[in-house]
Amino acid sequence: MRTSVLVHDNARGSLDAIRPALMVPSLAEALAHAWRAFRDAAEPVNVSQVQHRSPFRYPGGKTWLVPEVRSWLSTHTVDRFVEPFAGGASCGLMVAAEGSARVVLGELDPYVSAVWNVIFVAPKKDARWLCEQISGFRCTVKNVRDTLAVEPRTTRDLAWQTIVRNRCARGGILAPGAGLNKSGEAGKGIASRWYPETLVQRITDLVEMRSNVDFVECDAFDLLKKWARRRRTAWFLDPPYTASAKSAGNRLYTAHTIDHVALFAAAAKCAGPVMMTYDDSPEVRKLAAKHRFAISTVPMKSTHHEVHRELILTKD
């Protein structure tokens, strides 16, 4: 069997050097071991070098994974990219901005959905109103508490509250009971993550992308049922981390209960390519093996700057 491999000109010499080993079946395990050693020595992506497009600070956000998703997607011919657990939607927004495919974002959380609805669905005047609220807001503890104490009457009211809570709560956590920033970044207190000009620019840029993005407030399984049979649809599944008994998902997210057994079964039936990301746990590895997903790991830094490896599961 022959396999074609695309190699950058700068790497051609290295490939030529190991070409003889690639033709020897008995060396397959040695080559796999060398690859694992190279992979495990990789440094985490520096997220400061990845363009941020989302207005959210999101627990479990995937900005660090954007280069990996871009590389994976480039190996497939697709016309749609579906992210059923959108959250901060870093990967979907990258695809939309670069025009790689039409993007479908799905989200069940009503707070997060309110923001995406204002940006991608509602009349543009609602997004302009949201930007005006952000620009004119003086971020103090009193003003934040007063803003969050008001009962929202419209979707744009809820979107505004969500932005304030997300930027001012510890870790960007939206789940009930999350406390507000105290010392904050560099001792700047509650306003340490409040960047009005940046937020307004991101929202403005996203509104300009809305012709290439469909947002749906729905359960992820509804999207899987709708698009699963389409071969030219790529899937990026980043569910809340609740598959392991040690998961932090139930304290980080409002909508955190997921049937992971059913999710793997549904993802395995997708006709198009699938990428899933999970915390590394025996439960997840067992499900991945059962449904014949390829398993790899990528290094990432936690919010506490600790490096750990995240599972990347693919079905091509």
Give a structural overview.
The protein is of the alpha/beta class. It has two domains: 43-108 and 218-316, Vaccinia Virus protein VP39 (Rossmann fold, 3-Layer(aba) Sandwich), CATH 3.40.50.150; 111-212, Orthogonal Bundle (Adenine-specific Methyltransferase, domain 2). The protein is 41% helix and 14% strand. The chain has 13 helices and seven strands. The chain has helices spanning 12-22, 28-40, 66-73, 90-98, 110-120, 124-135, 141-149, 155-168, 196-208, 220-227, 249-252, 260-268, 282-290; strands spanning 80-83, 102-107, 213-217, 233-237, 274-279, 294-301, 307-315. A seven-stranded mixed sheet has the order 3-2-1-4-5-7-6, with helices on both faces. β6 and β7 form a beta hairpin. The protein starts with 11 loop residues before the first helix and ends with a strand.
Write the layout of secondary structure elements.
Layout lengths: L11 H11 L5 H13 L25 H8 L6 E4 L6 H9 L3 E6 L2 H11 L3 H12 L5 H9 L5 H14 L27 H13 L4 E5 L2 H8 L5 E5 L11 H4 L7 H9 L5 E6 L2 H9 L3 E8 L5 E9 L1
Parallel strand pairs: 1-2, 1-4, 2-3, 4-5
Antiparallel strand pairs: 5-7, 6-7
Helix pairs in contact: 5-8, 6-8, 6-9
